[in-house]
Write a structure and sequence with these properties.
Blueprint: H1 3-13, E1 30-33, E2 38-41, E3 47-49, H2 52-55, E4 60-69, E5 72-75, E6 81-85, E7 92-97, E8 101-110, E9 113-122, E10 134-141, E11 151-154, E12 158-162, E13 166-172, E14 178-182, H3 187-191, E15 215-221, E16 226-235, H4 241-254, H5 258-266, H6 279-291, E17 318-319, H7 320-337, H8 342-355, E18 365-366, H9 392-407, H10 415-428, E19 439-440, E20 447-450, H11 451-467, H12 492-506, E21 511-512, E22 517-518, E23 521-522, E24 528-529, H13 538-547, H14 561-578, E25 579-581, E26 586-589, E27 606-607, H15 608-626, H16 632-647, E28 663-664, E29 670-671, H17 677-692
Antiparallel strand pairs: 1-2, 2-3, 4-5, 4-10, 6-7, 7-8, 8-9, 9-16, 10-15, 11-12, 12-13, 13-16, 14-15, 17-18, 19-20, 20-23, 21-22, 23-24, 25-26, 26-27, 27-28, 28-29
Helix pairs in contact: 6-17, 7-8, 7-9, 7-17, 8-9, 9-10, 9-11, 11-12, 11-13, 13-15, 14-15, 15-16, 15-17, 16-17
Length: 705
Amino acid sequence: MQLRDALDDYKRHAGHERLFAGERRTVEGRFTGGDGRLVHVAPDGGLRDFGYPLTGKTGLTRSRFGLAVDGDVTWFEASRSRQRYVDDTPLVETVHETDRATVRRYDLAVGDAHLTHAIVEPAPDADRDADDFALVAYAAFAPDGRDERVGQLRYDDAVEVYHADEHDFLASATGLADLRGQLPPTFPEVLDDAPMDLPRDRDAARYDEERLSGEVVVEVPFEDGAATLGTLLSDRSETTREAARSRLDALFAGLDSPEALADAAADTTPAVPASVPERESVVADLRVLSLLSAETGLRIAGPDFDPHYQHSGGYGYTWFRDDAEIATFLLESDDRLGLGLDDWHARSAAMYVETQRPDGSWPHRVWPRNGALAPGWANARIEDGPDVDYQADQTGSVIAFLARARGAGVDVDGLDATLVDALASLDSTLTDDGRPVACQNAWEDSIGRFTHTTATFLEAYSALARHGEGLEDLAGDEDGERDDADRFSDGPAAHARRRAREVYDAIDDLWVPDRGRYALRETVHGDLDDRIDSATLALASAHRAYDALEDGTDAGGAVDDERLDRLVSHVETVVDGLTRETDEVSGLFRYEGDGWRRGDQPTEKVWTVSTAWGAHACGELSALLDARDDPRAERFAERARDLLGLVSPDGSLCEPTGYLPEQFFDDGTPDSATPLGWPHAIRLATVGLLDEHDALAAEPVPADD
């Protein structure tokens, strides 16, 4: 998103009660991608690239589509359009109604290319043949992220927009009946109080307008009622212009119908067996997680709707907390539902090995396309000074995934050495009282010794203890020795088991007896902050991981009865205390006193992450209780089903697109990153968890005699 666009949005929405001005929102419309580019198709058909974090190319910053006949252009409108995904694929179908014709569009991103295939159906009273119409497209490119010092090269059926390294192509299978350029909004236009209505009419007085910009308007003829427009983002050092144009020609020839596009789209997402429970939900989750993934396997948290950091710190990056949690949920779901995600698990593990820092930890956030350090505010272990601006739970989450992946047979180079280094790093942030040091929390908005961070340490140590056998037999370094292994006299797995017990015992320090639950944190002053926090629901899965250490199975037994009672009280109190119900939405908010992105709403907003977390925590606790034949298990299974229903396709927190936005206002208005990968992964894992324990549906009530 260029600054001119952000300012234009600011003019349109400043002072709005539910929209934060200057953003590029994605709560409506659908994305196509999963194999390179990430392209948003707005309800009115406008296209915009969100894939810079995934590919390093900026591409389309805005666009607009319409229909022309006899020189008269009708721009498509959201109010007269409808949209859907074709089957289980990321192929987006948008139907535009106009007074003269209906246009049925198919949009698909294929690697670094994107195709728009349009079919026109004249209205019965239009008195025009289909080929009398033309598809009109206004497209603004920003190669190398620039909307100035940009030029164009023109060909019979294409235009090339370039800055330095990035060269973007727009071409048509049926040629270009008209092509004109225009400059971005001028300074007076930017400073004017009124927003811009683009594109402008042609200005013959501006000779440079035609060539010195990234903005073009083209007319694409229909032939036999169909037209295809394609764009391709390229790097001059990797792709010649001849190769780029040939690539588009090949796509036009091979993907020249809705059926061919659907076949190509089917190859970009995992096939979900018909027998999988809650299949619609599972398909949507895998589609979203595929869309958000780079070729490396690392994922952005969500499409970056606020690249100028006006109302957030940005979302188009990989956080190791979110990403490792997602990777763990995918690993568990694959095991339970048979989704065939072996390549996904291996890619994640390989990138975690590659991005580990020399001290055994992982940084705040990285660019998913290559693992390079990205802008962040929690890099204390890289900078000089104290370590409080470090998120220790991220390292814990990565260890938990890598240990489980090792146990599941995922084999990547350097995995064992990475786990040993990570164990030493985790130890370095564990104090003598068995809890992590003061650091940043999962929500990245405060400092302290958090219950959530402690839970991630318990889960990490437990997973490594259970799946770390043989780590003590690491191959040596260049000198035939490995000093890291010497830190653990009886081997990393046994050491992790002892640490898990220490953390398990220390959790009692965070218990608040008069409130029947665990505190949010211990403050830097040594006081307990006893507010309710949905992140503390991580205790449920952490205790289940620890419980399995008793005999190495899910039957377990390491969690004692007193702790189990406290866990029951905690999960129940947190879910009850954070529940928000209005006429439009129902779910959990993040924590007591959360003031972020409230706008004019006086109370905390509902979060899909927190709601899905509640469902998963209740499911984990139900399984833990069921292993002991505890009758409370069904109560928590029922609560898990209820919360899962809120984020399921028919729930109030799921959009018609199948997407889970990060947040909702009380009036039902969705807000922030959409779709957000983390709740989609939790939703997927909760379906698998409940299905594994036959708890997806309530047990039938016996009929009266």
